[in-house]
Amino acid sequence: MVDCATNVRLPGPPPWLRSRLVEALDELGRYPRLDAARTALARRHGRPEDEVLVTAGGTEAFLLIARALGSGLALCVHPSFTEPEALLRGAGHAVDRLVLEPPFELDAALVPAAADMIVLGNPTNPTSVLHPVEVLEALARPGRTLVVDEAFADCVPGEAGSVAGRRDIPGVVVVRSLTKTWGIAGLRVGYVLADPEVVERLAACQPQWPVSSLAAVAAVASSEHRAVAEADGWARELAGDRERLAGDLAALGIEVVPNAAASFLLLRVEDGESLRAKLGALGIAVRRGDTFPGLGPDWLRVAVRDRITNHRVAGAFATALGERGSARPSVDRIYR
Ligand SMILES: Cc1ncc(COP(=O)(O)O)c(C=O)c1O
Fold first, then answer.
1. Which of 19, 123, 202, 329 would bridge 253 by S-S if both were Cys, CB 3.0 to 4.6 A apart?
2. Considering the entire predicted model, what is its pTM?
């Protein structure tokens, strides 16, 4: 089975990172220290250390935000990763949804003034849309917390569009994940970048030793110049591969959400459930869209892989559509 359903980039850590983790096994007898990870992450983003909090993945960061930060009304921009909303609700926040329509661009004017916490992904899972920094700037204001989930920010060459290094936008809390880029979902490591007072409040909700020493090693290693350059090289390659795959799928008459910026494409097809089953029978797993607010069963998310795999994926779509007898490309259904 070719896994185009999950959005992790690698099936496991690259050899250089694996070696660093193996070398660190001897440290497991001691309780973890996170100072080196904090220093490395602060340096990577050009921020003081007291603006960085190392967490057990982006998911722990969302839990801390939900527990530590108050809100009168939290607004979750959808379709998007649903965990932040679930955690906010679980912690007792009043939550509203702003459900965007295709092509899923965010207009700051759509956000109610009463929302004193906004949560959005940039680029967004599953739409792959990157909201321009100007839109984030327009949303930010003193007294409002703007949570920007940047789990896929390093899919964009030069991390254009990231606000990780921006200390001048009021109320911004950036959540980053290291798990997808480096094939370490099982290790659980991510971090928050925010002003020191927010970091302190989040840290106060963490248990002792929230992040393992191996996760801390991964945070240091992935912040080094060589790793950042490797991720950037991959982002540049991804852009070409993604454009080719989008073109191949669009040529089959499939709607491809335009301006994709992350490592996946969001598609709208006819009879999505049966198409997904047919693709499965052809050895290609794609992600159903209907678990994301605002999307129904005809939306599918497909990961962009290497060129040969993408070619195979497009071929499987062609076969599956052909089997269904509705494969005639129709140009007016293609977003451009
Ligand atoms: C958009 C987005 N943000 C954050 C996460 C959380 O990632 P992790 O907790 O592994 O860092 C995920 C995981 O799927 C995600 O899709």
1. 329
2. 0.95
Helix then strand then coil, in percent of the chain rounded to 5, is 40, 15, 40
Residue among 145, 144, 149, 140 at smallest CA distance from 174: 149
Predicted confidence (pLDDT) per residue in 264-288, tens digit: 999 999 999 999 999 999 999 999 9
Please give the single-letter amino acid code of residue 256: V
Which of 259, 255, 222, 219 lies closest to 242, judged by CA?
Answer: 259
Residues with CB under 6 A from ligand 1: 57-59, 81, 121, 125, 149, 151, 177, 179, 185, 190
C-alpha 229 chain-centroid distance? 19
Classify residue 204 by burial, with Cβ atoms within 10 Å: 0-12, 13-18, 19+.
exposed
Q: Which atom of ligand 1 is nearest to the CA of 124?
A: 1
Closest CA to 265 of 241, 281, 283: 241
Residue 64 alpha carbon to ligand 1 centre in Å? 14
The CA 194 to ligand 1 mean position distance, Å, reads 18
Residue 75: helix, strand or coil by DSSP? strand
